């Protein structure tokens, strides 16, 4: 009919994600899933987000689902289930605040929920966890101590988190060591988790590890003569750096840490650099880059005398794998170097190639029952 318009079916426009969301969805899946996120949740959450501004909200909404399952289980006195649900909720809230430093109030709200859920979970985890306060610089650092069941005065391994990992994320990291008779004490150090608001990132992280070692020494339920140290990502710098100075450390594991943070700076993802600026309490990126130069093992690695296990991953887009090679070469004590050819950052996509192996190694070094 003349003059009549024809209604054509509308085609749905493709969903366009901003670069930060696309990068997160492409690179973070192995870490999130390896540390407690259900694969379907990861795919659904990241697939539903188009703007980085929505990241924290989306993860917090899904975290609330797991939190409610945990609270319902508590009300029914199903404590094992409650511990599992609440631990998972804490991980989801944590990943909601993960690198989300452009909206501090929203980030802090998610962080508070992560800590709340983890604290609720602790007595119901297997083995149970204990929240510990560690005197430091006139205030406190906070950690989670877990002791293997059936072991009197076990050896203990101090765990150093990375740039934006926290003690609420580390259950999957802890389990292989606990199963081998090694207690774990994971803590939020300067610039991390509960400490990030009061204390800036510091290159001389040994000051924080000393405070933790002092707190361990004051306890009667741990073997204070057998203390190990572990660090992941930026913690893979903190741990060997601290082992160079803190001689109570009997063995150290360094997982994909930088040798020199300033050398790696220009190749770091945008979100990583921005998170470092915020966690270092600097106003500008130029100041943050100068501060990055204080995180270096130059002239330090050669002071590491205790046994050292170093992990590098050849597909790591954050930390060059040759940093692991250099650390292993310069340390003076016994060194075991493991390079994962097809591993991404911290080789979380190939966790089966190193998690049990590092746990066996530490158990052997500390004379644990599983060594």
Number of β-strand runs: 8
At the third CATH level, what is the topology name of the largest domain? Rossmann fold
What is the CATH architecture descriptor of the largest domain? 3-Layer(aba) Sandwich
Largest sheet, strands/sense/barrel: 8 strands, mixed
What string, H for helix and E for strand, traces the elements in order? HHHHHHEEEHEHEHEHHHEHEH
CATH superfamily of the largest domain: Alpha/Beta hydrolase fold, catalytic domain
Distance between the termini: 86 Å
**What radius of gyration results from the CA coordinates?**
21 Å
Describe this structure in a few short sentences.
With 371 residues, the chain is of the alpha/beta class. It has helices spanning 19-27, 29-34, 39-48, 55-75, 79-97, 104-121, 171-179, 206-217, 235-245, 261-264, 270-279, 285-292, 321-330, 355-365; strands spanning 129-136, 139-146, 156-160, 183-188, 227-232, 249-255, 308-313, 335-340.
List the main descriptive attributes of the protein structure presented here.
globular; 8 strands; de novo design (two linked rop proteins); alpha/beta; 14 helices; disordered N terminus
Compile the SSE list and pairings:
Elements: H1 19-27, H2 29-34, H3 39-48, H4 55-75, H5 79-97, H6 104-121, E1 129-136, E2 139-146, E3 156-160, H7 171-179, E4 183-188, H8 206-217, E5 227-232, H9 235-245, E6 249-255, H10 261-264, H11 270-279, H12 285-292, E7 308-313, H13 321-330, E8 335-340, H14 355-365
Parallel strand pairs: 3-4, 3-5, 5-6, 6-7, 7-8
Antiparallel strand pairs: 1-2, 2-4
């Amino acid at each position: 009919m003349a003059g009549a318009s024809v209604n054509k079916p509308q085609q749905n426009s493709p969903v366009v994600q901003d670069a930060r969301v696309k990068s997160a969805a492409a690179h973070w899946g192995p870490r999130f899933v390896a540390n407690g996120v259900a694969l379907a949740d990861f795919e659904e959450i990241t697939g539903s987000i188009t703007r980085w501004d929505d990241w924290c909200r989306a993860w917090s909404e899904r975290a609330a689902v797991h939190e409610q399952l945990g609270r319902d289980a508590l009300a029914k006195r199903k404590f094992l289930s409650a511990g599992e649900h609440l631990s998972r909720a804490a991980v989801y809230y944590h990943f909601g605040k993960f690198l989300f430093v452009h909206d501090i109030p929203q980030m802090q709200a998610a962080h508070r929920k992560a800590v709340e859920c983890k604290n609720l979970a602790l007595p119901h985890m297997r083995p149970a966890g204990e929240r510990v306060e560690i005197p430091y610089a006139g205030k406190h650092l906070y950690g989670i101590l877990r002791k293997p069941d059936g072991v009197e005065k076990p050896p203990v391994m101090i765990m150093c988190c990375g740039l934006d990992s926290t003690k609420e994320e580390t259950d999957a990291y802890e389990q292989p060591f606990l199963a081998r008779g090694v207690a774990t004490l994971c803590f939020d150090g300067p610039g991390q988790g509960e400490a990030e608001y009061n204390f800036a990132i510091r290159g001389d992280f040994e000051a924080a590890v000393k405070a933790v070692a002092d707190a361990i020494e004051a306890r009667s339920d741990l073997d204070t003569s057998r203390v190990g140290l572990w660090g992941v990502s930026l913690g893979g710098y903190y741990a060997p750096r601290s082992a160079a100075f803190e001689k109570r450390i009997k063995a150290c594991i360094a997982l994909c840490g930088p040798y020199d943070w300033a050398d790696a700076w220009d190749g770091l993802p945008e979100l990583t650099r921005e998170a470092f600026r915020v966690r270092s309490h600097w106003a500008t990126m130029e100041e943050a880059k100068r501060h990055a130069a204080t995180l270096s093992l130059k002239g330090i690695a050669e002071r590491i005398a205790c046994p050292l296990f170093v992990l590098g991953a050849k597909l790591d887009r954050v930390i060059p794998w040759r940093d692991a090679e250099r650390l292993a070469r310069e340390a003076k004590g016994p060194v075991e170097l493991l390079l994962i050819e097809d591993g991404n950052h911290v080789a979380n996509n190939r966790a089966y190639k190193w998690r049990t192996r590092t746990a066996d190694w530490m158990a052997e070094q500390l004379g644990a029952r599983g060594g």
